[in-house]
Amino acid sequence: MHEIVLQIPHNKCILWKISTLFISPFTTCVLLWCYLEHIFLMTQELRLDPLAGYHAAELLQRFMVKHLTDLLTTSTPQGAAAVLPTSYEDAIFDKLKEKFPLIIFSCVQIASKVYLHSNIIDNNTAVHFLHSVGHRVSKQTLLETELMILKGLEFRINAPNPLTYVEILLEVLGHNEPSIPVEELCDLCRHVLRFVSLQKAAIYDALLKTTTQCVSPSREQRERFVTVTEDYMLLGVGVITVAAFIVLDELSHITGISRRSIGDFVHVTLMHIVNTNSPLTST
């Protein structure tokens, strides 16, 4: 069994950033994905479809943003601030620290029930798994946590996820051009998507700086960029293209032909394919 340690970071500033959408939406969109590695390990250990893992990550992000926003915008109990300015926030953090591992797991459990072709995690399996990683919880606690998440999401659990977009795009690609080895490309795309997801903060931050041509993008630029981080169609296309470039690198390595030479040949050929005036395409 892979070692799975479900812990909340000691730096609670991360949690406050997640909840405060009005402070930095860009930060909000990428911070929760730092827990994706835990989700990947759980789905692998529980033999779930990778789709369930990405779906669980979406549920976790949506729920935690709403849950923390609700907690931190609730009026501070009378007298709490008089004792210690941060006592109320500390109390929320301590309470969340205890629940967070179970919240992550419950999102995985809910996601497993969405896909009929995937293994469904029943409560017996859930309790056994959590015990094996050092979390002793009852079935009642599991049910209460699951219900809390479902209510927080208003029972809207059919959230889109990036892997679905990648697979749909590949299906369309294979339908339009049957000669493309979609199955082989799909396996490579899954590896690329996993890497992009685990490195999402760094990749999207670099993309933001590239598109704005600014080393230190302003708050307004980051807020406008949120739509890019949420564009799974763009992510899907990007992942498939990266996978194709990896194939290009492998061909270059096998043949000894430089990437530039291959790229030039591809570029000229594509120009002739898309140019309706080309002798190759004219009738």
From TrEMBL:
GO terms (BP aspect): reciprocal meiotic recombination
Any GO CC annotation of this UniProt entry: site of double-strand break
Family matches, as InterPro entries: Cyclin-like_sf (IPR036915), Cyclin_N (IPR006671)
Sequence ranges assigned to domain Cyclin N-terminal in this UniProt record: 38-158
Alphabetically ordered keywords of this record: Membrane, Transmembrane, Transmembrane helix
Transmembrane regions listed in the UniProt entry: 14-36
PANTHER family per UniProt: CYCLIN N-TERMINAL DOMAIN-CONTAINING PROTEIN 1
Protein name: Cyclin N-terminal domain containing 1
Gene name of the encoded protein: CNTD1
